[in-house]
Design goal:
40% helix, 14% strand, 9 strands, single chain
């Protein structure tokens, strides 16, 4: 059973423990797959002094991780979430079918991957993969339209060669055969190798939900996490919970008491699940 730790970080409360949280996760990677930090989002009333005192950002998190660990050096270990959209588009062109691409605003989240060797040494993927060079070259290939003239196998081979050029195997962690994994993924479409790679790494993420004090419409426009409402609307997460705060409107329009819901849905619990015979009212 995989577990993801999702700690909310507030300056002056627990920002001095972010390194210890990642250390704990690294010591328990057989069950912990990821640590997804969430810098605090202020809801409700708060005065400016308290807000500024507690405000914590993704940049703060990265700097604190660099200060509190010996395996994260700084911003160069992290990439904004939409950077992965380039690889998604590359795979889409190879497979000749669209793949999911997270094109969220770069201020919404960042991520890094850590690998722990058998001897205990922790290495960031940024230490042996030139991600900047890889993404730049991949973007240029995508824009050239070259893959449109390739079959799937030739396209996969081209992608494998592209990624291979930006990996320094001499700096890769012991026990991690990156090139073998890439061959399995690109040339034989074997996702098992990719799964094994994920089981040997720890994903470090940061997702900063907005509040009324840092609300950014451009981030809302590029949101990739949404609520759906009973009347068919799709509302961005931060718009639903902060900003215009659609939550109040939706709950007022569609909300009801538990008693009323049970009257309308006999034989089901408040989660919409069928009740067992022993749970049904006499």
């Amino acid at each position: 059973l995989a577990t993801v730790l999702v700690p909310v970080i507030v300056r002056g409360i627990n920002d001095d423990e972010v390194g210890k949280i990642v250390d704990f996760a690294l010591e328990n990677t057989e069950v912990i797959r990821s640590v997804n930090f969430q810098p605090v989002s202020f809801s409700g009333r708060i005065n400016q002094e308290q807000r500024l005192k507690g405000r914590y950002t993704i940049g703060d998190l990265i700097n604190d991780l660099a200060d509190q660990t010996d395996y994260i050096e700084g911003p160069e270990d992290f990439f904004p979430i939409p950077a992965a959209a380039v690889l998604s588009e590359l795979i889409s062109q190879i497979a000749k079918e669209p793949k999911v691409a997270f094109t969220t605003h770069p201020h919404c989240g960042s991520a890094a991957y850590l690998f722990r060797e058998d001897g205990g040494r922790v290495i960031s993927l940024a230490r042996f993969i030139d991600a900047d060079g890889l993404l730049d070259e991949a973007q240029a290939l995508i824009e050239s339209g070259e893959f449109e003239n390739y079959g799937k196998l030739r396209g996969a081979l081209k992608a494998y060669q592209l990624v291979k050029r930006h990996i320094d195997t001499s700096k890769a962690p012991k026990g991690l055969n990156v090139l073998s994994m890439l061959k399995s993924v690109f040339l034989t479409q074997n996702k098992k190798a990719l799964g094994e790679f994920h089981w040997r790494t720890l994903f470090i993420g940061a997702m900063h939900f907005q509040d009324l004090y840092n609300y950014d419409l451009e981030r809302v426009r590029r949101c990739v996490i949404h609520y759906t409402t009973p009347d068919g609307r799709i509302i961005p997460f931060c718009a639903y919970n902060t900003g215009p705060e659609f939550r109040v409107e939706v709950e007022k329009k569609f909300g009801m008491s538990i008693e009323e819901w049970q009257k309308r849905n006999p034989g089901r619990d408040i989660m919409g699940r069928d009740l067992y015979p022993s749970e049904l009212p006499a």
